[in-house]
Write a structure and sequence with these properties.
ABC_transporter-like_CS; 8 helices; ATP binding; AAA+_ATPase; 247 residues; nucleotide-binding
Length: 247
């Protein structure tokens, strides 16, 4: 069980995340939806100890998650990655195994097999020698999906993976997510707009600095909850996503 208790983050005195608590069981596919600036990325980073928190506890199997990060695969937003870095597709995926291999040891047979299998699963094995910067946005997202798969983690966190990708990549992402769920993995995916893919979720969290609602998507997507999530206190809305029309 992944458990988050009273997680709070402040930046320069302003609240970014306000006392968020939830639990996720193995085999659950959880969607996180909210407008830009709602704290979706901040929450994932805070769970991993990548940003300082003012309060809260995050545990997995009753132990602090920060002490077992090898069990977590985290894929940040594409905008946070340096795509000009001179590295090949295969090397990016192999980096997921650095912790188990050690910095000064070459990849063993099992590691190569895991990289091969992961790239095959996302349809990029034939692109393994290409520079990451030469790929399209959708292909780049698939490379980091393969990197997460090669890690063979227990918890998968994906931050806005559907942003700027093509239809084939979106279908591959959803197929991989279904597979991870069937394997009993914990899967949390953020998006500002889920669309028809919301039907695949076990749970949906609406987040805007605090947790507005958490439950089955058709129960969560109410006009009242959407108003609280996507309309600011001043009354200026960020726009209700088209997902509302598919609930």
């Amino acid at each position: 069980m992944l458990e988050v208790q009273q997680l709070a983050v402040k930046y320069q005195g302003s609240c970014c995340l306000d006392s968020v608590s939830f639990q996720v069981a193995p085999g659950q596919f959880v969607g996180i939806m909210g407008p830009n600036g709602a704290g979706k990325s901040t929450m994932m980073k805070a769970m991993l100890g990548l940003v300082p928190t003012v309060s809260g506890r995050v545990s997995f199997c009753t132990c602090p998650l920060c002490q077992q990060l090898e069990r977590v695969a985290y894929v940040p937003q594409r905008s946070q990655i340096d795509w000009d870095f001179p590295v090949t597709v295969g090397s990016v995926v192999m980096m997921a195994l650095t912790r188990s291999l050690g910095w000064f040891r070459g990849p063993h047979r099992e590691a190569k097999q895991r990289v091969h299998a992961a790239l095959e699963q996302v349809g990029l094995w034939d692109w393994r020698h290409r520079r990451i910067g030469a790929l399209s946005g959708g292909q780049q997202q698939r490379v980091f999906l393969a990197r997460a798969l090669a890690q063979n983690a227990d918890i998968f966190l994906f931050d806005e993976p559907f942003t700027g990708v093509d239809q084939p990549t979106e279908e591959i992402l959803l197929e991989v997510f279904r597979s991870l769920k069937q394997q009993g993995k914990i899967l949390m995916v953020s998006s500002h707009d889920w669309g028809k893919s919301m039907s695949q979720l076990d749970r949906l969290m609406l987040l805007n600095q605090r947790l507005i609602a958490d439950g089955y998507p058709d129960q969560v997507m109410t006009p009242e909850n959407l108003q609280k999530t996507f309309v600011t206190a001043r009354g200026a809305g960020s726009g209700v996503p088209r997902s509302a029309f598919f609930c």
